[in-house]
Specification:
mainly alpha, about 160 residues
Length: about 160
């Protein structure tokens, strides 16, 4: 019986209460909040009013959330600018920030060295090492520099 009572309470939540429930778990961008409230079948007008109220109280602030998310990715030191930009765009956040190339190169070398501890053969295969760093969002110039620093020989040096 209690199960059914909880189910009805959940569906009877106001749009604002549902939004606050979502914010309890992590910061949401305006785009994410709108999408999630639409999935819960709230009307456009309710969603618009809720977002206006959330912005007024400072619960939804895309600029500060973007800064926090970027800082979080940067502190992990294992992703390049491309990866971070893609993740932030997927969340509907602006990304005016960039990791400096020197720091990105150091991060790429560090990530590659960590991977080499688990899989030493990666340092013998330029393509695998480059593909690994590319999936982490590092640029081609950073990848080339990191692989040269790690001593990984390019299979086709004249290309």
């Amino acid at each position: 019986m209690a199960y059914y009572q909880n189910r009805t309470k959940k569906t009877e939540r106001s749009c604002y209460e549902a939004a606050l429930h979502l914010l309890k778990y992590r910061g949401q961008s305006e785009m994410e909040m709108c999408r999630k409230l639409k999935e819960r079948n709230y009307g456009e007008k309710d969603i618009e009013e809720t977002l206006k109220k959330l912005k007024h109280y400072g619960y939804v602030d895309d600029e500060s959330l973007a800064e926090d998310v970027f800082r979080s990715f940067r502190s992990r030191r294992c992703y390049g600018n491309t990866y971070i930009l893609q993740k932030m765009k997927a969340r509907g956040l602006p990304c005016p920030y960039r990791i400096p190339e020197e720091e990105e190169r150091d991060n790429a070398f560090r990530v590659l060295a960590g991977r080499a501890k688990v899989m030493p053969s990666i340092l013998k295969n330029y393509r695998k090492a480059a593909a690994f760093l590319l999936r982490r969002g590092f640029s081609s110039s950073v990848i080339h520099s990191a692989l040269a620093e790690a001593g990984v020989e390019d299979e086709f040096p004249n290309w």
